[in-house]
Write a structure and sequence with these properties.
The protein is of the alpha+beta class and about 240 residues long. The chain has one domain: q2cbj1_9rhob like domain (Jelly Rolls). About 20% of the residues lie in helices and about 30% in strands. It has 4 helices and 13 strands. The strands form 2 sheets. It has a 7-stranded antiparallel sheet. A 6-stranded antiparallel sheet has the order 3-4-7-12-9-10, with no helix packed on it. The longest helix is centred in the middle third of the chain and has 13 residues. The chain starts with 11 loop residues before the first helix and ends in an 11-residue tail after the last helix. The structure holds 2-oxoglutaric acid (AKG).
Length: about 240
Amino acid sequence: MELLDTALDLSWGVLRDLRKLGAAHIPQALSPIGLAKLSDALRDVELTSAPVEVGSVRQVASLATIAEPLLGRRPTLRQLALELEQSFSVAPWLETGVSSWRANEATVMRYPVGVGGISPHLDGRRYSLIVASFSIAGTGRLTIPTDRTGVHERCGWVCAPGDLVLLRGPGFDACRDGRMLHAAGPPECDETRVSLTLRMDKSLPRNPAPPFQSSQRGECAAADEAVAPTHSRDVGTV
Ligand SMILES: O=C(O)CCC(=O)C(=O)O
């Protein structure tokens, strides 16, 4: 592996958190060299201000979305997607459906010091199976709130450069929709936070269909109920 840390262990502990919490935090998933290469690869990406309001969601950030075929023209981003896809191609991921995840969209987000962040939201339904968000610069808290007020949280992590947060998407574990609300807090130190999120947009061409099954696990059905969105924040299109 070139970008992911060679000691990265995406195995049962991570899967257990995804099943239980809807998300998992993996510290230092990127190697120091991988982090440096990705920071470099994002240097020329032009970001634009995201709309402050999307439905009930509030955000202060700049962003850029790089979808296929443009993603394929960025070798470092393509390499990261490939390494992650390879990590999902072995046990225990085979039974989750995530082995057929193919990242075809990357979103770069930049949160300014003091005010940056996104209130509780769901990613668009079209982002299948799993969402992988890497912290590239700065630190900030990512939380899994219990509701859209964001007052209480199920869990949360201070994410530092190199960390990875995985979130369930539709189709994970054959769940029709096990997405979880999540929120990004402002940068914690005096440094702008930058994240890089890989997604599989099933509405884009050349995308393998997620392995939906008719049976749903009880645990996921409960999650469906808990987070059933009134609307979705579509990160990729704002
Ligand atoms: O910046 C992050 O780490 C998470 C971003 C996020 O929540 C989103 O794009 O939906």
